[in-house]
Amino acid sequence: MEYLTLSQLVSDIEPKYQLAFYKRFKQAVREGELLAVPTTGSVEIARTKSSLGVPEHLLPNDGKAEGWKTSVLESLQKPKTPSRRLSVSKSDLESGKVDFVEMATRYRASLAPKKATPKRTRRKEE
User: Fold this and answer.
1) Dihedral of the alpha carbons of 81, 67, 58, 20, in degrees to the nearest 10
2) Taking the domains of the chain in order of start, what are their residue ranges?
3) pLDDT reading at 124 higher than 80
4) What is the mean pLDDT of the segment spanning 25-47?
5) 58 three-class SS
6) CA-based, 20 to 30 A from 87: which of 17, 54, 79, 93?
7) Contact between 5 and 45 (Cβ < 8 Å)
8) C-alpha–C-alpha distance, residues 73 and 44, integer Å
9) Between the CA atoms of 86, 90, 92 and 94, what dihedral angle is there, to the nearest 10 degrees?
10) CA 84 to chain centre
11) Angle at which helices 15-31 and 64-77 cross, to 10°
């Protein structure tokens, strides 16, 4: 079986995105989205002021890592927009990552009027 290294994945990424990419890589391995095994050696990840040495990893070269890399780079390079907890992309809905009915239910609940909380009054000292 052919293997891909983390240094091969990171090599053609712009330095300003390398640290964010590595953090997402660790998260994807932790969640089981990618399979990876640490090996001897290290990779230099660019940071703002200096570089960070991280362990080299081996991944199966089955195309899954390349597809994951492409989607992560697209999300990193998107212009920053105000955070909206309930916003989803059309591609996430079409791929099945996000359930449409569940998101519509959550959105409807967020539009419901908020319950008024009673005002707190100070106790008068006697």
Assistant:
1) -10
2) 3-80, 81-112
3) no
4) 91
5) strand
6) 17
7) no
8) 18
9) 130
10) 15
11) 130
